[in-house]
């Protein structure tokens, strides 16, 4: 399948009074047509920042961004701001983690939908826009779209607001949807319903999805391919089946071991230590201080290497083959 998004060697540094903060360090990933790719890792690994860098949603001040983000042939890093704004919300959209924070409580849901449609489909008249909004809400299993459109976000439940966000993100039939941990603030049942709706609509609309999550159980059900992120870097990439059957990076193995299993009496194993401080320089593998296999050789630069259909940034990966 053709790649619609190709991120290559993306570096992001913020200059602060305490010195430079290196948030992303050479991130490279891709999303193909009709594909669902998961970006996973601990909090602070750089997942959400990567999503915002792709969409051009980062603050400009004191920022250094290098590398390329090629979306359908255009590099978004060097794209004109006006052109980027035009594509964002039409060809590529984002669903944020907390719908209550993302939706504006002083405007009705209808007005917020109309703001999206005015950018993505300015040719629609009022009747056509109303029909498009109602259809979008029915697509996410909202049976009374008129009531929801007339409501404010604080009048709706968390689950309904999350469905509204999905409908708003997909109403323009985007080529790419970035979903930043959707449903995390909701209960497990509602979260599962949310993901099933997203999966069904992505298949129906032909929309590719970059899905950000720390929940490996959800990722296993939802994603076609997984990129594992640690300390601002991609350390492993594989199909979902390969990653869960044969993880090759020690960090990936540690992540999987930390997940509780109902089918086993074994207790989950927490990962000792913490993610490195982004203000500190890193030599070699960033996981070295927490890795039981670490040697002095891990201090050298370790790029992603291909092993069959997997990519791994580890000199010890053959021990897991």
Automatic annotation (TrEMBL):
<dbReference type="GO" id="GO:0016887">
    <property type="term" value="F:ATP hydrolysis activity"/>
</dbReference>
<protein>
    <submittedName>
        <fullName>Peptide/nickel transport system ATP-binding protein</fullName>
    </submittedName>
</protein>
<dbReference type="InterPro" id="IPR003593">
    <property type="entry name" value="AAA+_ATPase"/>
</dbReference>
<dbReference type="InterPro" id="IPR027417">
    <property type="entry name" value="P-loop_NTPase"/>
</dbReference>
<dbReference type="GO" id="GO:0015833">
    <property type="term" value="P:peptide transport"/>
</dbReference>
<keyword id="KW-0067">ATP-binding</keyword>
<dbReference type="InterPro" id="IPR003439">
    <property type="entry name" value="ABC_transporter-like_ATP-bd"/>
</dbReference>
<dbReference type="GO" id="GO:0055085">
    <property type="term" value="P:transmembrane transport"/>
</dbReference>
<dbReference type="GO" id="GO:0005886">
    <property type="term" value="C:plasma membrane"/>
</dbReference>
<comment type="similarity">
    <text>Belongs to the ABC transporter superfamily.</text>
</comment>
<feature type="domain" description="ABC transporter">
    <location>
        <begin position="7"/>
        <end position="256"/>
    </location>
</feature>
<dbReference type="Pfam" id="PF00005">
    <property type="entry name" value="ABC_tran"/>
</dbReference>
<dbReference type="Pfam" id="PF08352">
    <property type="entry name" value="oligo_HPY"/>
</dbReference>
<dbReference type="InterPro" id="IPR050388">
    <property type="entry name" value="ABC_Ni/Peptide_Import"/>
</dbReference>
<keyword id="KW-0472">Membrane</keyword>
<keyword id="KW-0547">Nucleotide-binding</keyword>
<dbReference type="GO" id="GO:0005524">
    <property type="term" value="F:ATP binding"/>
</dbReference>
<keyword id="KW-1003">Cell membrane</keyword>
<keyword id="KW-0813">Transport</keyword>
<dbReference type="InterPro" id="IPR013563">
    <property type="entry name" value="Oligopep_ABC_C"/>
</dbReference>
């Amino acid at each position: 399948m053709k790649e619609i998004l190709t991120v290559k060697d993306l570096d992001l540094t913020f200059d602060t009074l305490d010195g430079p903060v290196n948030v992303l360090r050479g991130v490279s990933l891709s999303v193909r047509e009709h594909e669902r790719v998961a970006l996973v890792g601990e909090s602070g690994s750089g997942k959400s920042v990567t999503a915002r860098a792709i969409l051009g949603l980062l603050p400009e001040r004191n920022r250094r961004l290098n590398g390329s983000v090629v979306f359908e042939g255009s590099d978004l890093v060097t794209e004109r701001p006006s052109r980027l704004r035009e594509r964002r919300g039409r060809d590529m959209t984002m669903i944020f983690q907390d719908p209550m924070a993302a939706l504006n409580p002083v405007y009705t849901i209808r007005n917020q939908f109309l703001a999206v449609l005015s950018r993505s489909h300015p040719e629609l008249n009022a009747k056509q826009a109303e029909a498009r909004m109602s259809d979008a809400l029915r697509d996410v299993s909202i049976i009374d779209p008129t009531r929801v459109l007339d409501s404010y976000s604080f009048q709706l439940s968390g689950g309904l607001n999350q469905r509204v966000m999905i409908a708003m993100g997909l109403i323009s039939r985007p080529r790419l949807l970035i979903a930043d941990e959707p449903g995390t603030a909701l209960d497990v049942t509602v979260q599962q319903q949310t993901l099933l709706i997203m999966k069904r609509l992505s298949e129906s609309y032909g929309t590719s999805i970059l899905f950000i999550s720390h929940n490996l159980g959800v990722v296993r059900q939802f994603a076609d391919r997984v990129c594992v992120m640690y300390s601002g870097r991609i350390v492993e990439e594989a199909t979902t089946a390969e990653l869960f059957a044969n993880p090759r990076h020690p960090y990936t193995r540690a992540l999987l071991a930390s997940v509780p299993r109902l089918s086993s009496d074994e207790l989950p194993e927490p990962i000792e230590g913490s993610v490195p401080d982004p203000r500190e320089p890193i030599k070699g593998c960033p996981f070295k201080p927490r890795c039981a296999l670490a040697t002095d050789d891990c201090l050298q630069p370790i790029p992603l290497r291909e092993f069959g259909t997997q990519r791994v940034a580890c000199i010890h990966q053959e021990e897991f083959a």
